[in-house]
Input
Amino acid sequence: MATQICLMTPFDDGRAARHASEDSRALEDFMRGVERRALRMAEFATGNRDEALDLVQDAMFAFVRNYGSHSGAEWPPLFWRVLDSRLNDWHRRQRVRGRWWFRPGDASGDDDVLSAAPDLREPGPFGRMADGEASAALESALRDLPMRQRQAFLLRLWEGLDVADAATAMRCSEGSVKTHLSRALANLRRALEAHR
Amino acid sequence: MNQPHEGENWIERAQALLDESAENLDAATLSRLNRARQAALAQRRGLPRRWAWSAALAGAAVALFGVAVGLHHRFDAPGAPAAAPLQAGDIDYLTSDDDALDLYENLDFYAWLEKQGGDPRG
Output
């Protein structure tokens, strides 16, 4: 009896350790795949790389601790949800610390009226800007977007989440995601055209 | 990853520019991201250590059980001196005196001595 118990424990322990190792490898691959975009997303929100790195690190810790044991298919919306929560907290703290700071777009940009449908014959809001110029214009326009609009744009059109996953990540309804995205597109188009 | 949206070319260009900005991060930033990832994953690597602790505790419990069974058989063996029933005062004695350890370690001797009619405590 005692011998059987002694033989079973290392066997089970070894199998559990092997599974944990495989899960850890999959988790590391997933995190390596999203971390750069997560950093850029945090950087658009904070305007500061060091703060962005801190937020991403914090999100990584919370994600592994709370959701690391979930199945891999669930990871993308959960990771972005954790990061989105960190970005919201950061945004809230900034508002409390410096209410007198004016950041264009932070106030009530969600009330903007949708712009008209785009004319596909036009070269688009980037016009014929060179890549460097276009990149700077895009970053500036993204930073100036209200946070929810920026997140909807980045999660849906850059990260490629579907509406349901974006809604999970942003903790809002699917209808809200669509509304934020439409407004983000309208505001980005307007901002980029102003750069031309 | 990137999806065309509303057939607008400018969105595809924006996606490409964003991809490029993420790909071209400097080495120091990539190093910090790598360290952050490793530190976060280190939490998870703690799990097998917990399993090892559980296994060690289970092993210790099994060993203790084995010792207890062995002692039980030893004192129940034919010809072995029968142990006197434990009295309430014995518990106090075992837990309050340094001699208790001596008694415990030389239990066989004291049992034999008692059988000979001598006073185990001198």
Chain B touches chain A through 44 residues (CB under 8 Å). The longest helix of chain B spans residues 27-76. The mean pLDDT of chain B is 71. The radius of gyration of chain B is 36 Å.
